[in-house]
Amino acid sequence: MILIQLLADVVTRYRLLTALAMAIATAFAIGGHLYVPPPPSESDSDSPANTGSRLRIATSEGEGNASDCFLVVETDDLFKPATVAALRHVVAAIEQQPYVDSVMWVDTIPVLNVFGLREPLLPPNDASLERFEAARDRVMQHPLAMGQLLSDDGRTLLMPITFDWLFVTSDADCSQALLQAARDASASRPDASLNIQLTGRVPLYIAYQEAFDRNHRKFQLISYSLVLGLALLLFRGIRAVAVVAAAPAFGIMWTLGLLNWMDELSNPLTSVVVPVLLTMVGLTDGVHLMVHIRRARADGMSPQEASRSAVMRVGLACALTSLTTAIGFASLLVAQSEFVRGFGRGCAIGVVVTFVAVITTIPLACSTWLGNNIHKGHEHDLVGHGLKRFGWLIEFVLRRAKLVSMIAVLCTIVFGIGAAQLRPDDRMQDSQPTGSEAYQALAHCDKALGGIEFVRVRVEWDESADENSAQILTAIQDAEQILTDEPSLRHPLSILNILASFPGDESVTNRLAFLELLPEKTKASYLDTKQRVAEITVRIQDLGIAHYEPIFLRVEQRLSELQTRYPGFNLTLVGDPVKRGRNLYRIVTDLASSLGTAAITIFIVMTLAYRSLRIGLITLIPNLFPLVVTACMMVLFGHPLEIASVCAFTVCLGIAVDDTIHFLTQYRSEVDRHGNVEQAIRDAFQGVGSAMIITTFILITGFGTVLTSDLPGQRYFAAMAVSTIAAALVGDLVFLPALLATFSREKRVSTKSN
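^ thats the sequence. predicted structure below, dont judge the formating
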C-alpha cells in the first residue's frame, strides 16, 4: 500500500518527472522498432527473409524424401489416349518451371520383368485401344501405382512434386503459379476432362499463412474500431475515451519495442496475440481507473486529487490483476517447447509493461488540463444507471446467499466433471481456412487414396543377419502384417509388394534374386542392405492424433513383441504424425501443468494480498467456474484440447481473475469503512459493477469479431474467450457476493439498500 501511495504521489505531483520517464521509455521502444534482429538459422522454425528458405524450413517435417506438394488430378477414365496425352502435356508444363525439381506419376514408374527390361506402364499416345486396356491391367496390379499414385477406382491421380528451393522466388511459385501452369496446360487439351487441384505441406502452409495474415490485419482493425466506438458510447465523452485508449497504445508500443530488442517477436503467436491481448488487458484496468476518476470529478474533486484518489483506490487492484495475469503467462516457462516458452515470456513482459503504461498515462493525463472536463457525460452513464435497476439481483443474492453459494459450488463441480472429458488432438483441418482449395484437395485424397501423410515402420538389423538372408524379408513381412491388421492404416508398401509384382509362383521371401533387377533408387527407398535398414510405409487420413494415437501404441506394442522373435533386429514406428502425436501430448501436458501451477500461484498471491486464507478459498469458485464452463463448451461442440486452446485458457484465467480482484478490493475497502458485510457487498456491486460490465462488454465485442474468421483455430480461440469472459461476469457479480455473504468472517448485518 505504501508503494501505491508513493506511485500516486509521483504520477500526480511530479508530472514532469513522470512525463520524462515516459519519453525515455518511448524513445527506447522506437529504437526497438527500428532494430532489425539477425535472421534465424535454418534450425529455427521461424521465417528467414528468403522465401524459398522460409517455406522449406517452415514446412520441413524431417522426412528426407518427403514430397513438397501433390498435384491431384481427377479424370473420368485414365486409360484413354486423349487423357494420357493431356496428362503428359500437363507434366511437361510443370517440369518446365525452373523451381520444380521433379515430378513423379504413373508414367514414370518403370515396369520390370524377369529379363530386367524396363518399359513405361502407359503406352505411347498413338497406341491402340487394346494396348491401353492392357495397360489398365498392369497399372491396377502394380504396387507402386495402386493406392499410392492412383485411387482404387482409377479416377484420382496423385503426382508428388519436389521443389528446387534455390529458384523459388515467391509463395505463388509453390501454390497458385504452379497450379495455374497445370490448369493452363490442361485447358489446351479440351478433348480430355481433367480437374486439377494442389495440396501437400507447402500449399497447405501457404493457405494458412495467407489467411492468418489477412485475418490478423482485418480483425485488429475491426476490434479496435468497435472497442473505441463502444467506449465512446458508454463513457459519453471523447476525452475519457482518448485517455483510456492512449494507455494500452503506449503499452503495446513499449512492449513490442522491448520484445524486438530481445528478439522475441520471431515467435508468430507472440507477434499476433500480444497486441490484441494488451489492448484488452490495458482497457480493463484503464476503464476501472477512468470510472473512479470521473466519479471523483463529478463529486467535486480537482483533477489532481481525483487522479491521486483513483491510483490509491484502484491501483492496488490493477497491480494485483497484472501480477496474477503475468503469473499465468510466466507459468508457461516450465514447458519444454521453446515456442510455448517464448509466447509465455512475451505475454508476461507485455502485461507488466502495460500496467506501467496504464498506471502512469491515465492519472498523468487526467491530472492536467485534460482532466478538467473528463467527467462530462458521466451523468449519462448508461451502465451505471442501468446497474441501479438491477439492485434486485444483489438483494436476491444476499437473501439466498447459501442457496446461491451451493449452486455455485455444484455448478463448478458438474462442469468440472464435464471438463475432464477433454482430450488432446491435432487435425490439419483445424488449422486450414474454411473452403481452402488445398484442404479440399487433401480431403479428397483422404477418401480416394487414404491420405497423403505417411507413417513408417523402420526395420534395422545388425551384422549377424546376412544381407541375402530370407530372415530379413520374413521380418518385413511380419511387420507389414501388423500394419495390415489396422483398418485405419491404408495401403502398406514395402519391398515385398514390389517383389510381388514380378511374375512367378515363388513365395515373396524366396524372390531375393529379383532385387538386382530393381533400380537402385527404388530399391534404396525400401531396402538398403549396406545400411542394414528397410522401411514399410503406410498412409493415414486427417482424422486427428487422438484417433491414431491408440493405433500407434498398439502397433508399437506388437512390434516390440515381434522384435523378440528376431534377435539382432530393431523395429520402430517413425514418421511425422507419430512424432507430432508425442509432441502434442507432451506440450499439452506441459501447458496443463503450467495452468495448474498458475492457478495455485494465483491462489497463494491472493491469499497473501488480502491476508486471509478464507478469502483465497472463496475466490477459487468464481475463478474456476468460467474455465470449466468453457471446457464443457469445448466438449459439447467436439473441439479437442490442443496447443492454441490451452494457451487460450491461460489468457482466460488472467482475464477471469481481474474482475474478482477489483470486486474484492472494493469489498474489503467498504468492510473496513463500516464493518457491514451485506452493505459492503452492495457498495462493491455499485462501485465496480459498472466498470466490470463495461470491460466485459468491450472484451466480448473485441474477441467476438474474430468469430467470423475463416480460420477454425481463431474461431475456437475467440469462442473460448467470449465464453470465459461472460461466465466470469456471472461468477464475480453473482457467485462471489453470495460466497462472501455466506463464508465471510466479518459481522453480517442485514440492512436495506438505499
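The mean pLDDT is 81.
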